[in-house]
Amino acid sequence: MSGIPQTIGLDISKGINELIRSSDRFRDWNSPEILALRDDCDKLQKIEAARAFIHRGALAAICGEVEQIFTFFKKALDHPDPVTTKFEFWTSLSNVGMYKSAAELGSWLLVPRRGKFLQVWERAISLGYLRETAVGLIEAQKMFREELASVDFSLLNNSLKVMDERSLQDADIISVFDLMGEVQRAHRIMFAGDFFVTKFRVMRPPEDLPYLFFSLPIDAGVEEVHQMNRELLKLVVERLPGGAFPGGIVTSFAKAVRNIELPAAA
Q1: Strand order in the sheet with 211-218
Q2: Gap between the terminal Cα atoms of the chain
Q3: pLDDT recorded at residue 257
Q4: Contacts of 231 (CB under 8 A, 6+ apart)
Q5: Which of 127, 133, 191, 249 is 20 to 30 A (C-alpha) from 91?
Q6: CATH code given to domain 164-255
Q7: What is the percentage of the chain residues whose pLDDT exceeds 70?
Q8: pLDDT class for 263, splitting at 50, 70, 90?
Q9: Is 41 exposed, middle or buried (0-12, 13-18, 19+ CB in 10 A)?
Q10: Cβ neighbours of 258 (radius 10 Å)
Q11: How far apart are CA 194 and CA 121, in angstroms?
C-alpha cells in the first residue's frame, strides 16, 4: 500500500527492543513513545494484520497491560500462521510475568512437529517446563538428530531426577512462577536478561533432600529486590498448599548484575 514503508514491521520491532534495552520497567500505555509505536501498528495492520496484532501484544506486555495482550492474541489467531502467533505471544506473556498462561503456549510449542522445539526448549526449562521438555525431546532427537547431537542435556536430566525424588511436577514450579509474576506486575518490572527467564541449578545439600533453585534476575535496587522476595513469601504462605514452596523447589528474585536485551518482538 502506498505511503507505508516496507520496513515498518522491522522498525516497530526495533523500537520495542530499544525501549526494553533502556529499562525493564513497564511503560505507560498512553505515553508519547508508546502511542507512536501504536500508530505504526495501525499502519502495519493495513498490509500485515497478524503481525500488527503481534506487535501490539509486545507493546502491551512492556506496559503491563495484561487484558490487552489477551485481546490482541485472540485477534492475531484469526489470521494464518498460529505457530508464529503463539510463539510471539509466549514471549509477551513471559515478559509480563503471566507465567501460567505462557506455559500453556510453551507446552504447545514444545511439540516437535510444530517446528519450534529448537527455538524454545532452553527457555522452556528456565520457565519450569522440565517434564514437558523431556517428553518433546524424545521425538525432537529423531527429527533434529544433527542439531541436537552435541547438546548437553545434563542439567535437564539431573533436574528430572530431583523431580522424581521429590514427586515434583511442572505445574508445581509454574505455580510459584505465577506468584513471582504477580509481584513483578505490582512493582511494574520485567525480568532482566536476554533469553533465559531464570537461572536455575540442582541443589543437593549433604544432609538434606535435593531441590531445584530458580533465581529470577531483576534490574532493581537491593532493597526493592528484598521487598519483592518478602512479598513473594507472603503470597506463597497465602496461596500455595501448606503455605510453603512445593517440596523440591525454591525460587527467589535476585539483583541483576546488568540489564541485557529481553526478546520482545520478531
Answers
A1: 199-203, 211-218, 249-255
A2: 22
A3: 78
A4: 183, 186
A5: 249
A6: 3.30.70
A7: 95
A8: low
A9: buried
A10: 8
A11: 15
DSSP one-letter code for 189: B
User: How much is the average pLDDT of 156-160?
Assistant: 97
Within 10 angstroms of residue 42's Cβ, the number of other Cβ atoms is: 10
pLDDT tens figures, 207-217: 999 999 999 99
Cell triple for residue 258? Answer: 546488568
Give the Cα separation of 101 and 144 in Å (integer).
Answer: 28
Task: Indicate the length of the chain as a whole number.
Answer: 266
The three-class DSSP label of residue 252 is strand
Query: How is residue 48 annotated by DSSP?
Result: -
90 touches 98 (CB < 8 A): no
Burial class of residue 140 (count of CB atoms within 10 Å of its CB; 0-12, 13-18, 19+) = buried
Residue 149 has pLDDT above 90, yes or no: yes
Phi, psi for 22 (deg, rounded to 5): -80, -25
One-letter amino acid for residue 177 of the chain: F
Domain regions of the chain by residue span: 164-255
Q: Which amino acid is at 23?
A: S
